[in-house]
Design brief:
Layout (H helix, E strand, L loop, with lengths): L4 H24 L1 H13 L4 H9 L17 H21 L5 H21 L3 H25 L6 H26 L4 H7 L2 H8 L8 H18 L5 H4 L2 H18 L3 H21 L12 H20 L10 H21 L5 H29 L5 H8 L1 H22 L2
Helix pairs in contact: 1-6, 1-7, 1-9, 2-3, 4-6, 4-18, 5-6, 5-8, 5-9, 6-17, 7-14, 7-16, 13-15, 13-16, 13-18, 14-16, 15-16
Main location: membrane
Keywords: Lysosome, Membrane, Transmembrane, Transmembrane helix, Transport
Membrane topology: Multi-pass membrane protein
Length: about 425
């Protein structure tokens, strides 16, 4: 080990914080992004009036629920679909791009996302900024999870805790800055400092990565050549090498039993993001000390607090029964769906408690999934397995976003 375990843990904590920060902030700002669209459809207000108009809720809505014309799932889909595409295909080809270039690209994408969302004159430009945040987060997560295989498994705890910290920091800072009177635009510009902090982190951790990749690929090809001919390796072109490695990695997804990790993780994230982007907006308690916008922001903040606590728990408790976490999260989603439909919750504090519990389940599922993948996968295939399994949460989130559109339309029509 070049660095001590503690310093590596802290480095990965910082990387997790910086990598997920823009993604979380975009979800916390989802209401304000969509409120901008509603304001544009009426008149052309100043940036300050966008924030103040939203504080009062959607006065144009005469139905049972205080709804935005478009569900916050629109922002969720823009925030997750690019990540999903990257995680589906990048593990098979990403080895061609050195880690340093990946980190630089992620930083540029994250900074651009803050600029686009804060300064955009139209909502479609804001959505484009959200897409850039998704690209940054997806490529960064895939790369840094793959990177953990070169070090002790302890760094997974640092990564999990850092990504949980990003959730709390992003949601809490956005809520606090807007609560004290700063406009969403100014708040997002202030947060530009975080993407550039990633460049200050010692991110070129395993310099031997490319050498190990070449050694592994050559070893794989030599094994293949033994079953064909002695000259097969010598004359095999680079394209054939890439195709062979791609096919080998695809077969590993099934041979290593990754589905038993990917499926429970996907179910957990489907249930929790169905809650976050499909139901939270509709869990509104009128005539209390918090406006609709503030209630939504604090839902997001408490959820992220739960995620931080559970993603930081790997040093204390490990949960192998991932299916149990999936089942409990589904129960949460069904309970809150019924609560939205029949409105039987007596007060806001009960919803706060359930949302915090939801975050605990989601964070525990994430960090335990990757811990047991790193523990139970063969060393030579571990790097690919860590990257490929990360598709589980993104697939669940994308499906939740699609379902949330229909749920939002149904409830807002009542």
């Amino acid at each position: 080990m070049i660095r001590s375990t503690l310093s590596l843990w802290f480095i990965y904590w910082l990387l997790g914080l910086c990598n997920n920060f823009a993604y979380v902030v975009m979800l916390s700002a989802a209401h304000d992004i969509l409120k901008k669209q509603e304001s544009e459809n009426a008149t052309a207000p100043t940036p300050a009036s966008v924030g103040s108009n939203f504080q009062g809720g959607n006065s144009s809505n005469s139905g049972r629920y205080d709804c935005n014309p478009v569900s916050t799932a629109a922002v969720l889909l823009a925030d997750i679909l690019p990540t999903l595409v990257i995680k589906l295909f990048a593990p098979f080809v990403i080895h061609k791009l050195p880690y340093g270039y990946r980190v630089l690209f992620c930083t540029i994408m994250a900074a651009t996302s803050f600029l686009f969302v804060s300064l955009s004159p139209a909502v479609w430009i804001s959505i484009l900024g959200v897409i850039f945040a998704s690209i940054s987060s997806g490529l960064g997560e895939l790369s840094f999870l793959s990177l953990t295989v070169f070090f002790s498994r302890d760094v997974l705890g640092g990564w999990g805790s850092g990504t949980g910290g990003a959730g709390v920091a992003g949601a809490l800072l956005y809520s606090l800055f807007t609560q004290v009177g700063l406009s969403p635009q100014v708040t997002l510009l202030i947060m530009l400092v975080v993407p550039f902090a990633m460049l200050m982190t010692p991110c070129s951790l395993p310099l031997e990565y490319n050498r190990r990749w070449k050694h592994w690929a050559s070893h794989l090809l030599r094994e293949t050549a033994c079953h064909q001919s002695e000259c097969a390796l010598h004359y095999m072109p680079d394209l054939s090498i890439s195709v062979l490695v791609w096919l080998h990695n695809y077969s590993l997804f099934w041979e290593q039993g990754l589905l038993k990790f990917v499926f429970p993780l996907g179910v957990v994230y489907f249930a929790e993001y169905f809650i976050n982007q499909g139901l939270m907006e509709l869990l509104y308690f009128p005539n209390i000390f918090l406006t609709h916008a503030e209630q939504y922001r604090w839902y997001q903040t408490l959820y992220q607090v739960g995620v931080l606590v559970s993603r930081s728990s790997l040093c204390c408790v490990k949960i192998r029964k991932l299916w149990a976490l999936s089942l409990l999260q589904v129960v949460n989603a069904v309970l809150l769906l019924l609560a939205v439909r029949y409105q039987f919750f007596p007060n806001l504090w009960l919803v706060f408690a359930i949302v915090l519990y939801e975050g605990l389940l989601g964070g525990a599922a994430y960090v335990n999934t990757f811990f047991f993948i790193s523990k139970e996968t063969e060393e030579r295939q571990r790097e690919f397995a860590m990257a490929a399994a990360s598709v589980g949460d993104s697939l669940g989130i994308a499906l939740a976003g699609l379902v949330s559109f229909f749920v939002h339309r149904y409830f807002c029509s009542l």
